[in-house]
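Page 37, continued from 36.
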């Protein structure tokens, strides 16, 4: 009976110490050595998914947990990043957190992503919005939308303020990463600046792939 109890404790401790990534890699190696290449690929895919999940968790830690007077309402991550793009960039991720304030009613959403098609579309939109010609058209339309270049350290992008709908949006880029803050019911840019300062931008940089300058 004592032997069974000791064996149970040993097995339980082994389960606690198990690592989903290294275990999957070991299983992939065993399947590969047995020439079961399909199963080996499945195990490697499982290991990669777990690594992506850990990346998303680490990225979320670098985002604000909350600010005084605000309540966290949601948190989500997409470790797939879009199946069609997994083959192009297997390290893609997308993380989003949200907060709300009851008085006055306000909502903040902060997202970080390096999903290629999402970042490329956002960059194109930001370049269009920051174009002086487009800004003049918006002014003539009297939509109440104002745009300006915004920078936080090495992260650069654009700030869009819609006075009519009380919305402020900041979109910042660094390497292949995009950080977006969207404020609903927010009229004061200082509120957005507080949230920006609560983000650990310097630590986020290690999750990016900075483009190397071309050598001619």
């Amino acid at each position: 009976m004592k032997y069974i109890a000791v064996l149970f404790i040993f097995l339980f401790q082994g389960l606690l110490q198990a690592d989903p990534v290294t275990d999957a890699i070991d299983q992939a190696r065993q399947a590969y050595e047995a020439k079961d290449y399909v199963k080996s690929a499945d195990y490697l895919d499982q290991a990669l998914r777990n690594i992506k999940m850990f990346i998303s968790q680490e990225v979320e830690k670098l985002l604000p947990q909350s600010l005084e007077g605000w309540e966290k309402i949601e948190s989500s991550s997409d470790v797939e990043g879009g199946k069609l793009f997994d083959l192009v960039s297997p390290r893609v991720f997308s993380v989003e957190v949200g907060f709300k304030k009851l008085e006055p009613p306000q909502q903040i959403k902060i997202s970080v992503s390096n999903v290629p098609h999402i970042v490329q579309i956002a960059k194109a939109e930001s370049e269009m919005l920051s174009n002086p010609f487009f800004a003049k058209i918006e002014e003539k339309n009297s939509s109440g939308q104002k745009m300006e270049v915004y920078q936080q350290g090495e992260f650069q992008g654009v700030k869009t303020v819609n006075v009519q709908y009380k919305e402020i949006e900041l979109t910042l880029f660094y390497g292949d990463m995009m950080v977006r803050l969207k404020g609903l019911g927010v009229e004061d840019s200082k509120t957005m600046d507080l949230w920006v300062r609560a983000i650990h931008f310097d630590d986020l940089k290690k999750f990016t792939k900075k483009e190397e300058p071309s050598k001619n």
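The chain is about 45% helix and 25% strand. Flag for discussion at group meeting. Confidence is low (pLDDT under 50) at residues 1-12, 81-88.
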